[in-house]
Every structure is written in C-alpha cells, then in structure tokens.
Amino acid sequence: MSNSGSIFDDSEPLNVFVYTLWSISLVCAIYMTIAFNRKIMKIFSISIALMSLNVLLSTIWGNDLSKAPRQFCIAQGLMLQFTAYMTSMAALYFTWESYRLIVLKIKKSSTFIKSVYSLMIAYPIIMTSILALISSEFNSINVHTLCCDITNPSWVRLFGYAGVNVLIAIPGAYWSGRVAWIVFNHSDKTLRTFSTLAVSQERDPSTVLINIKNAVNPTVISLIASINTWIDIFLNVPLQIGVSGNDVAGSIIGIVVFIIFGTAGENIQKRSK
C-alpha cells in the first residue's frame, strides 16, 4: 500500500486491470457514438471515448511516462481536463432535459438548443485555456500513476475537472433530485403532462422515465467526487500516488453509461429498412 494515502496497492497487475477497464470503456463509448440517435448522447459518448483513448496513450511507454516527451505529458494532462469538462457539460444538459420535461413541462426551443451546443464547445475550450496558462506558470502538470495530470500546487486542481465541475454538478444534482422526487412519487398530473410532451417529440415516455431514474446516480456520484477534491485541497492533502478510487471510477464511466443508456431502444439509432 502506498504511504501517500492511495487506497489501492500500486502494483503492475492493478495498473493493467485499470487500463483494461479503460479499454472496455473506449469500446463501449465508440459503440454508443455510432448507435445513439440523439446528438447530446453522441457528444457525451465522444467525450468519453476521447478521455479513454487519452489515458490509454500512456501504454505507448509501458506506463513509464518518465520516458515520454514533456510536450506529450502536458498535452495529455490538458486533454484529460478538456474531455472531462465536455463530459460534465453533456451530463448537465441531460439532467436539464429531464428537468425541463418533468418539472417545467415546456417544449424545446431551437434557439436554446443552439446556445447549449455552443456552450458545450466554448466552456471546455475556455477552461482548458485558463488551466493551460496557470499550469505553465506553476509547472502543474506532471507524471501521475496512469497518465499525466495536475499534481501541484494543490490549489490548481480547483481549476481542473474535479474542482470547478462541482459548480456544474450542484445544479445537475438539484435538477435530478427534483425529477427523481416526482418520478418516484408518481405525480399523476405531472407525468401525464410529461407523457404528452415526450410523445409530441417522438420519444417513448416509459423509456425516457427509465433513463431519468438511472441518470440520478451518476450525477450524485460526480457531485460527491468533486466535493471530496475540494476538501482534500483545503486540507492541503497531496494528490495520491498510485491507483486511487477516482482512477477506477474514471475507467468505468464508459461501461456504466453503456449499461444505463446503451441498451435502451429509445436511444438507439433507428435504421431504415
């Protein structure tokens, strides 16, 4: 066990196991990118695929990133942040869609949708650019266990995927909570209105409800993980050496999303005969 607080034994077999999980997540994400019929789900899947591929590039050097060029390490660290920002924005929009249908009971606005897609592109670019400037000033991106990441000083991690993303996870958790309360309590009036809206947008209400219920857990987990990062930073706890719980959680995100959404017929591209 690592003396730095890692919850796992920093061993080669464990690294191989986690890389295997990343590989499975990559395959799942590629499948979902091709199969999903909704743009938001495609964006979500693409971001997961890019994140998985980015981490797996470490295996080029046999997970000995000290052999990798410094430029690669910086690029890998920034790409990790970029894909995480993109994933968070896609997840936030998904929870908003559920909140819009169930709680607000309003139809889509084409203008709003265009604004959302623009934000999904702009937010990761802006945040990654800010992080790149800060990281270059403080030499913050360095070799970590499985890939290059923000390591020091610890406060720079507040600008990373597990720092500012708590600001995104909070409204997402609120929207999911409101939706879950209504769905699990079966408010007949609200669900009737929801069904009407869902059908008007050519979506199966029962399948959408299943997606909504399943989407609550990832949102809450994301919020808890982000809060844990903030606590570690304020307590000046250094980034763990060795494979941590966050590494394992990240490696299975594609698998979890596939299990939740990838087998739902409403999400799958309908092929013309």
From TrEMBL:
Gene3D superfamilies documented for this protein: Rhodopsin 7-helix transmembrane proteins (1.20.1070.10)
Entry keyword Membrane: yes
Keyword annotations of the record: Membrane, Transmembrane, Transmembrane helix
Residue intervals passing through the bilayer: 16-36, 43-62, 74-96, 116-135, 155-175, 220-242, 248-268
Name of protein: 16476_t:CDS:1
Lineage start: Eukaryota, Fungi, Fungi incertae sedis, Mucoromycota, Glomeromycotina
Organism: Cetraspora pellucida
Domain of life: Eukaryota
